[in-house]
Amino acid sequence: MVTASTGTYTVLARRFRPQGFADVVGQGHVAQALRNAILANRVAHAYLFTGARGVGKTSTARILAKALNCPNAVDGNPCNECEICEGIAAGNDVDVLEIDGASNRGIDDIRQLRANVNVKSMRTKFKLYIIDEVHMLTKEAFNALLKTLEEPPPNVKFVFCTTEPNKLPDTILSRCQRFDFGTIETANIKGRLAQIAEAEGVQVDDDALELVARRAAGSMRDSQSIFDQLLAFGEEHITAGDVHRLLGTASDDRLIAIADSLVARDQAGVLSTFHRAIDGGVQLGELTDQILFYLRDLMVLASGAVEIELSSVGPGSREMLTKQAKQWGLQTIVAAMQILADTKGRMQRVTYGRALAELALVRIALLEDLTDLDGLIERLRSSEPVTSDIAAVEKKNELLTAEPDRDPITSAEVTLPAHPLESASDEQSRDVEPGGVEPLGVSAEDSAIAASDEPAVTHAESSETPAVDKSAESASGDSVEVATDELLGQQVDALASSVDSASSTSVGSQSLPSTDVNTVAGAAANPVSSVEPSAEEPEDSSDQESQRDAPTVVAGRILINPEDAEQIWSSVVAEISDMLKSHVKQVSKAAIAAPNKLELTFPRKYHFSKRYCEKPEVISRLEQIAARITGQHLRVSLLVGEEDGSDAASPPLDEPARQPARKRLYKPEDDDFVAVVMQTFDAECVRVDSRAGGASQAE
């Protein structure tokens, strides 16, 4: 339409701008809230309109200005016929000022606004300031506007419009009533375009209106701009082909053909269809976007959300897309969509976008049926475990399997490991009744050591001792019970020290299951029926005490006893002669925390030495030295002692106790300068304080 006064053409977006609250398409919640506020006289002093481009923010601000100032307003709606309404609609009213925040963003512009805000409106009831793209204002401009925005004059209203509300300071947001404008539905845009086409006297096919509405992506102004361009491109009758030629997009049939080739895994067919589309005038970027949105529609249909409208093709193609989605499967569709989305992001930064698009299509065509694979995985997860015979389990896991019809407590044949505290000179034998529990055997490493040294007495050697006679047991009375308790204590100590390593203890070439340890513990709970008391009593207890204090040595090797931990560590330190010795000498405590585990404690002030010894090569070296001394593998772990504990107070091992530093007495009269000062001022020494960082001095 050409304006008669100026002879220029006015675009559709300006000529068909909404003039009342009812004309704002898709923003009914905002229109109702503003109209009710006007009727109830509850209009706020500042509003913030947020939303995407072209959804009616500025148009609604103008309608609000007309509704507040129109003398002929009815139910909150302006008449659009009076001089005030026409002036505001044209944008030349002196009391309604529209400011572009992008070009008037400095503090000087806000200062000018503050100077004019107190000027009374000339012919209207309210003065309105509409600041579009308000997020473009500078930080200083926002700060200058705060006080005026919080307490403006009674007749002044502010309306801020922005597409990026996250860029506004919280101090501005808290002073405004915020209304969020949502995107407009495709059906509403299509209806509005049909009204414009009828007003312009142009015949447009329904498919063409559908294409323009989908292309607008929820923006009414974008749809009107595209439709205005389409009216200039076409003739009196506009079809869907005209829209595709204008926008450089592919038709629905071409998109469906590409999808059919992808579903059928026809790489040659999909490339041929893609090339024909490009050669036919379809833009590469537009076609890639269309295929991506087509995959989105397939994902929606495969997910079962049939009520959601399609964004790539018209409603008439829904049945075809449903068939493709069912045939392809959700998992495959999601994988294809991810491939194309990643490719689309890369195409924007390179000059070989067409090759990348072709690569993506071929990769999608090569995708396997991921839905069937997902179902196979679910079936494998839900299936029962495959059972095997006992012999196969024994061969695979190298475990001893007890017979199912035997009692695990009374009939399980288990071998206990030789306790490390036992010496080769121990003459006591541990016997059990037939069917009772045997002690654990030694590990492979311990067996090798025992082969070279004098072997200790094990249960296998003493198994020929006859079982305890019932009558003899009852006749011996308390002596039998006391001896049994002592032997039980030795067995329990041996079992407690070997439980942690029971899972790794091996008998020959077979490992011991954890259930066998529980069996031994259960058998040890009833020792009277399975253990024969010792017949000999120690002759001299003082000799036993001296033997217990001394470390147990077998063939020149120290056995791992908890009370001999410091002796073992001293032997380890003695074999070190390089720089490492200065660090390991700072250890204040050595202890056997568990079987085959040596814990070394450093005082907190020797944290550097601890960090040095924590190196893997240092730990390995210490473990090798300990293995040579004890004949068994020892795991070395490092700890830090407490500040207020005995570890922190005691000096490190192999280090003599340090003598406390002597305090140096300071006498002022010995200092010539101080003596002269004291004599001059007739001063007297009252107290002597220690220097900062120096030694303490006497008073």
| Mean pLDDT over the residues | 75
Low-confidence stretches: 384-489, 494-548, 644-649, 693-699
- CATH third-level topology of the largest domain: Rossmann fold
Order of strands in the sheet with most strands: 2-3-4-1-5
**Number of distinct beta strands:** 14
In helices, the fraction of residues equals 40-55%
CATH architecture of the largest domain: 3-Layer(aba) Sandwich
Structural class: alpha/beta
Give the CATH H-level superfamily of the largest domain: P-loop containing nucleotide triphosphate hydrolases
The general outline is flat
**SS field, number of helical segments:** 31
Give the class-level CATH name of the largest domain. Answer: Alpha Beta
Strand content: 5-15%
Largest beta sheet, briefly? Answer: 5 strands, parallel
Straight-line distance between termini: 105 Å
The total tally of domains equals: 6
Radius of gyration: 47 Å
